[in-house]
Amino acid sequence: MEPFKYPDLPSEDYIRIIELLPGEPADEIKFNLTVELRTHCKESYDAISYVWGDKRKLRSIVCCNKAMKITENLYSALETIRAKHPGKSTRLWADAISIDQENIQEKNHQVKNMGLVYRNAGLVHIWLGADSDGIAKDTFRLVQEYNTLLHLPKLFSPGPDTSTVDELSAYLLEVNKLGPLLRLPWFKRVWVVQEVALARNARLHWGQASLDFAEIVELACYYSRNPHVTKWLGGPNDELLFLRLLFQCVYRTYGRTALWGDPQLKWFFKGPKGPSKHAVHSGLFLDILIISKVLLASDARDHIYAFLGNLLARDDRGKLLIEPDYGKTEQQISLDLTEALLQCTREAPYVLCFVQHSSVDDVTGASGPSWLHNWNNDGTDRKLIFTIGNIGLNYEAGGRVDSLQFKIQENRILLTPGLIFDELCWTSEILKSGDLALDLNGQDENSVQPQQPYIQVLLDEVTLAYQQYRGAERTWDPVQHKNDFSYTLVTGYNNKEDISQKSHASIFNAYCHFLEIRRAEPQLPADYVMSSKQAKKARRFERDTQNCDGRRLGILKSGKLALIPKFAQNGDACAILAGMATPFILRRADANLHGEGYHHLVGEAYVRGVMRGELAVNLDEVKMDIRLI
Fold first, then answer.
1. What angle do helix axes 532-544 and 501-520 make, rounded to 10 degrees?
2. Which positions fall inside the Heterokaryon incompatibility domain (predicted)?
3. Which among 338, 344, 286 has a CA at the least distance from the CA of 314?
4. Region for residue 383 given its phi and psi (left: phi exceeds 0; alpha: psi -120 to 50; beta: otherwise)
5. Domain boundaries, the chain
6. In terms of Cα–Cα distance, which of 59, 30, 85, 28 is closest to 205?
7. E-assigned strands of 295-430?
8. Are the CB atoms for 353 and 582 separated by under 8 Å?
9. What is the pLDDT of residues 146-192, one digit of tens each?
10. Residue 70: its H or E element
11. Sign of the C-alpha dihedral computed for residues 613, 619, 622 and 627 taken in this order
12. Does pTM top 0.70 for this prediction?
């Protein structure tokens, strides 16, 4: 049979629609491919969200009476959808068929408008793959039954009910089926996030079993809101936590989740006291990109292109921050995007905060400029690291955003005004948030001393170093030192305004008391010996130590404490950059290689007494040109 050849599309406003022809299960897949104006076919087709699978395992199909090959996984998806519509043709869109993958220009145009394809689809079919172990039907039933138990009284109360969590114990023997579901490849791919976020309705298909996607997201939201639910769902589950994070930080920013028809998701989004502080389309495009780093893509450039359907991917004038171009290298795309982000008022103060290095070579610029983001992930470390600087926190260490200026020279030098105000003289070991957890099972046994909690060990270590480096002339206030230490660990509680010293002391004391109870009586619930109010304070401190994970504590020559990047070292400079949200740790570049006055960007930092722009007041008078390479 003659192979199918794609005719050119009339313009980028046209798409190809698959007309999947009816057939018996044993029949080969046959379909026609029509070219239609995108605006004329809204909701007249369904889109498929799937993982391509092994490109070496191909199946033959018939397209317009000509031969075509597609991956086995897409073939199975088409078979399943055909079986659900016996005797009828089905209108579909699937990227591997609807886009000529060999035509780079067409691919650029179609990827740019991919969001519109999924937004305009009547339904998005999520194909998870074959149900090899025969557990899909039971797993989907389990998800529905969990949700039913948790929101039975929703007709009589404004939010989800958690008083019935004990009934969930009957399902504990089955809870291990959730793991295989959430570990399926679809949940790890970067492109599928936008595909489902833009859907007006999305349905999971695992073998012959089906489930509304909103159901699994609802379960993830229940899981993260209540420790009792977490317990009855089998304990900590990274996959459910990540799905909840996707809902909060990515799905909702597309402004489509209200169409999913799940009343409980609307409650999670608004909260019991009215609309959430996280409005639709609030946040940063940078937030979405940093989350995407833990996902997989066969083409590194798709870590950026896969989210261009989000309104946050547009600048102050409503223009796309970057146009898809598969003819450019990954580094050139990162450079183009960084320049665009620095010109966007919403994103600019945080651009350098999101630079997270994975090796010392990244810091010294061996693989490219140290101030450029690497949005791809090599697969060796997929742990999500939270940024210190982010929108909504009102950090203005470098002053207002309108003071930001920059020049990019020779595609490798970022020139910006700033002030080097201090230098590192001591750094701790790399911190792990698990060591600061109230649940002792989460702590590293090598970090915990037999007689005292890890936080006390860390405080003693910092105090000893501080006394060594502070100098005889500097006054010593142990109470203030302890306050600065604990306040730095929670980076100011990620709060818009500084919390009073009295309130902070109350929160930190509750945390320490909780730890004492846990160590004395590990099996005794803290609620038995401390009020729920105090326990809530302790949990707040624990939660906000997440920014410590993968970072170090540092002491500056001035005596200030700082939370610093893991690759920071003694002798590194601490600087503010005009218009940037946080201070930064910089490393002087080798003058023999680069000349005088150049620095490598090590990463963002938290320095109490600097975050609200205290040093930026007179920046115009003392600023210097900072050259980052």
1. 100
2. 45-195
3. 344
4. beta
5. 14-122, 132-184+213-274, 413-495+543-628
6. 85
7. 407-409, 413-427
8. yes
9. 888 877 544 334 445 555 555 555 555 466 678 899 999 999 999 99
10. strand 66-71
11. positive
12. yes
